[in-house]
Amino acid sequence: MVKASLIIVALFAVCFLLGSIPWGVIISKVFFKTDIRKHGSGNIGTTNAMRSLGKVGGASVFVLDFLKGLASGALGLAVAAFLVTENPATNLPWITPLMTFVTGDKMLAMDLSTIETASQICLSVSFLACVWGHIFSPWLGFKGGKGIAVAVGCLFVTFGFVGAWLELAIFIVLVLVTRYVSVGSIAAAAACPFFALYYFWGNGFAVVLCTLAAITVIWAHRENIARLRAGTESRIGDKKKKAA
User: Which range of residues forms the domain containing residue 136?
Assistant: First the structure.
């Protein structure tokens, strides 16, 4: 169990560092000779990048943040693939002791459902780590973006193509209806635990980690929530109010 646990911890650390890459700051400084944190809302994510750096700069930030989420999910799958291989010392998969601890099943058989559960553990770990890395970037004094683009990228692996597009649909529809990017973002995050319950049914560990990621994203939007309640949140196309 110790080795499997250490591998999971290492997965978390690598995905956290991958998520922590502040592409908004890097792109603004390297290609636009400015610091995105000094413009608009000061956020390093896609919305502020679009408003501060233009469509090309904003799109670049989105794609790179999306890709680091996608890469984190892929890394989670790769680690899961290793952990379900046989440990020569025990003739059991590496993850068997950890799976026994998580599920409480002392007679664990490495069948298809167990392999799926192992993958869910690794995917939820990489998802939470990447989102936390983006929101609490150590390179920016443990400050960062709000986690939407990176979360969506990771969800294409964590929930699969259909689940990720359903999350995107919630975001897109609410943004189009309300013209508030924050409303779509918060709603998509709020829906994440329910998707986790569906896709990870029976795996409480994975559901809890996905829920923690969703709560953190909503927390990162706390200023937006305050402005929404006060009626001062910026809408798409509104150039007079402060950018969100």
Answer: 2-230
